[in-house]
Structures are given as C-alpha cells and as structure tokens.
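2024-03-11 09:14:02 DEBUG pipeline.ingest accepted 1 chain
2024-03-11 09:14:02 DEBUG pipeline.ingest length=600
2024-03-11 09:14:03 DEBUG pipeline.predict start
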Amino acid sequence: MIDIRLPRLMDMNLNEITRILPEKLSYELTLMEPSTATLVMNRSEAAVTVGQFMELYETYGSIGIYRIEKVATTYKPGLWDRILQAVGLREATLTVTLRHAICTLEDGIIFGYHEYGGTGVNLQSVLTALIAMQPTPYWRLGTVDYATQYQYSFENESNLLDAILSTAEPIADEHRWTFDFTASPWTLNLITASDDYCEMRMNRNADTVKVDVDRSQMVNRIYPLGYGEGVNQLTIATVNGGVKYLEDTASQAAWGIVALPYPDTTITDAATLRAVAQAQLDARKEPTITVSITGADLSALTDESLDRLTVGRMCRTPLPDYGVTVLERIVSVRKTDVYRDNARAQITLANRNADSVAEMASAARKAMIGELYSQGATNQYAVHFADNADASNPAELSFYVDENAVHINSVACRFKLQAFRGYSKGAASGGGSTSGGGGASSTSTSSVERTATVAVSTPTDPADGSSMLYTGNANGLVGLHSHIYSHKHSVVAYVTIPGVTLTVPSHTHSTPNHSHDPVLGIYKGGTATGVTVKVDGNIVPSGAISGGQFDAIPYLSKDADGKITRGTWHDIEITPNANTRIVADLHVKTFIRSITGGNY
C-alpha cells in the first residue's frame, strides 16, 4: 500500500487552513522553469481561492509549496446538488492550477537602471541585493557555490525572478537552483549539479525509450554581442585576445563549422559577455540529445535510491539492443494521476544545460527590455579654439569626456597657423610732466698719448692763401717777381691729456601735463614656422601630423584597462616656435547611454 500525505492548504501569510482530500493530482516537475500541478477537488472540501498556497506530497515526501494561480468551477446539477442546496451548498468540482512558489518572485520588478557585481563583488552579494527587492519577503538566500565577480546590469526588468535566474548564465559548470521549504522565509540555493544517478532499464521500469538527435540548435563558433549598436556594440575582443568570437575546434572537426551570433544587449561588461557566451557554446557545441522515457517509478515499492526519479539527477539508460547507454540529466518528471497510478511516470533527459538557464530567463526578458529602452545614441561635438601663442605660452584646448560614454569612436584635431594679431597700433603724441633733480660727476686720472701725421701742401694757386710771395730787388738785376713752391711735410706729434673731472650740477626737467589718444586697429605680426603638440602631456610625433590634422586617441590618458579615462578633462597644448595665432577645431565622437540624470 502506498502512503501519500494530503495536500496542505495555507493562506497568503502561510498559516495552515486545512488538509485537502483531492480527487486527482497531476504534476510536472521541471529543471528549467517553475514546476506546475493541477488538482481536482470537490468544492465542499474548502474555500479555495487564487493567491493561497498549497504544499504537495509524493511517496517520498514533500515536492514543494505551490501558489494557486487559477480556480475553475464546474457545477453538476442533479439530485445530490439539490440535497446540498438545502444546506446552502452546491455540487461542484474545482480544478485548481498551481505553480511552484518560486513564482512569487515574479511579483517584483526592477524599475529603472541598476548595476550589480563587478570586481570585488561576488555572486552571493548580487543575489542578496536582488532578493531584497521582493515585495513580500517569502524568500531568503541560502548556499551559493560560486564566487564569480561578473557585472550585471538591469533596466526595467519585467519580473525579479528572471533577473535572479539570469545571474547564473555566465556559469559554465552544470548547476541547479534548489529550494528548502522547511522554514519561513523559504531558502533559495544555487549549487553545483550532482553526478548522482538513477537508472531505468528496459523490461524492468522502462516501457518505451525515444531518443531524438537534433543539430538544428547546434553552434560551435559564437559571436557574442552586448550593449550598443553598430560599431558601438560591445564585443569580447578586449578580453579575448582581439578575437570577436569563441569556438570549439573538436566540434568543428566532427560536425563542420556552424557559426551564429549571440546577442544580449543587457550586458555591458565584456568579461561577463564572454562568460555567458562560453556557457552557451559549451552547451550547444554538440547536437541536442533528448531522451523521452515512459515507465514506472518503483521507488515507493523498492525504497531504492537507484529507482527514485527526481529532477536534476543523472539517469542511466542502457539500450543493449542498440549497443548504446544513455547517461543524461533528468530535466522533467511528469505524473498524470498521483493517487490512482502513482508508479506511471514520463521522464525527459537532455544533454543541454544552456536550454535551461539561458533560454528560461532570457527570451522573454530580452523581448520586454527591447521594448522599454533604447541602447543609446551616437553623440558628436566640436570644440573651437583661436588665440595667440608664443614659445612660452602655448595654446591650450581642454575638453571633457562624459562618464556615460560607453565608447569613444574618434577624437580628431585640426589646426592652422596665422599671423600674430594685436588690437592696438599705438598712441598719439600729447602732454605730460616729469621732473627730477640732482647732479653727476666723472673723474679721469689717466693720460692718453696720440700720434698724427700732418701734411702741409703748397698749392700752385696763390689765391688760396697758401703760397709764399717774395718781393724785392736781387742785386738790382731782377725786378719784382714771385716763386711758388709745391711741397708737404710729415709731422709726428705727441699729445698728453692729463686726468680731468667733469661735474654736472643738480638740475630739474619739467614736462607739462598731457594725454595720448589710442590709435585703434589690428596689428599683424609674424607667423611661426613650426609647433610642438602635446596631448595630456604626451608629445605627438611630427610624423603623426599631416596637413595640420592628427588623431588624438593614441595620446589621451588611459585607465588601467587601456580605456580613455572618462569623467575627467583632457588637454591639448600647441606650442609655436615664435609669436603666432593658432586656430584649432576638435571633433569628438562618442556613444552615450542615458542612465543618470532627469528628463527636463
């Protein structure tokens, strides 16, 4: 005889109301999404309504607490109905639809933009923060077997459960979410999947075995794409040696290259994107093998662990007629009538973990998020500069890079040299005054000797006064006459100048008050023949400048990851070799996302 406890009905505060005697109970326990159950009962059993909770049981104990999602009432007119009407009741059957209590996390949302995790923040902290957002504290966090430090971003998540489940996407190891209902709040755990296995054998507890091999979802080269669009879309190149894809060469050798993109625009961190994509690749690099088995759950009869068919266990199924032994994980267990035919079960085995977490949490979440927000926008702005500069006073052009700049596409600078420019030519003459008194003296005690050659000429023309005139009578023989001599003498003279003292007496100069009117106009000077350019203190080589244009990106200051620093000022200095005027334009193109500020 099989003994199964009756379902326990509870109110929304988890207070027990009564035990239910159902007519029928069916369920489907699943690994990838909230399990479901359907219970048929007489209306007279209890006042059952949506929002209440019910704990269900199997031969081996509780299979969890479920929330009542829908109640359908079927009335049955007849004699028994008329008898019940006499006491204020009706003959009616209730069909109650239930979902696993993990669905209570769907009642909460993540409104707005939030980031969690990253360097120094492990998965336990991320999950603690997310569970704290549930509107009613039904759950608490228990064991987390992973200490990963991936970064997660959420914006207007449609429900909290999807966000929580998505945190396990980057984990490549096989893992399970488990639930403990022994105390309230209930406990949610994320643990490594066990290799413990059960067994189903033909002619013992397996009636039919169906094996499907499908390569339609296989991929062995995957191109991950994260936040952004176009050239601004996040890839894994920065954390994957410059390569934008992941691949499995063993699978390619066996099946050929099958390449697919993997977009998840909610991911803003390259390392997280790579981890999620690697988990997808590991799970999908081989064809999907799905094994459907119809058989018997003999655990209630044998009490052997090897016969207990529970979700998450590995199941070994030998097929000797085909020379094959299937060993895969149980992803679902379905029973159509727990009370009348408890042993009859349908189980499904699958070799793909990615079909669990990734497809369970991502499909609806991505579709919803894509409708609620855009990825961002390309932003281009120009900074103009024009001023005089010289060798000691460079032209300085500063610009700010916003902290919300996801990508910086280009920073191009153009400049040209013009004639130095002034804006006043001089001043007109006028009046003014200045006075001063005092004296000065200078004394020299040395003598100076100089030599000179003096030439004396006696020209032939007596009229110039340099002639010698003789008159007289020479022995009376000659009358009055003259002789003119032409000659010169060289004379060396030595002159000694004794030491002298010169004294300037005290005196005053006075200028009457006066004014000068400026002469307005533009003065143009020279133009420099060369410049030195620095970007954030880094010299730009002359070979990198062509026609007064250069790319500033290689010379801008970078952070520890080699990215241009955000949320700070950057400076460009242009130093000419002479007085000159410098005209410059800076064009900056970035990809911006709006996750802060208001809407004004």
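2024-03-11 09:14:41 DEBUG pipeline.report Helices lie at 79-85, 123-131, 160-166, 249-255, 270-284, 299-302, 357-372.
2024-03-11 09:14:41 DEBUG pipeline.predict end
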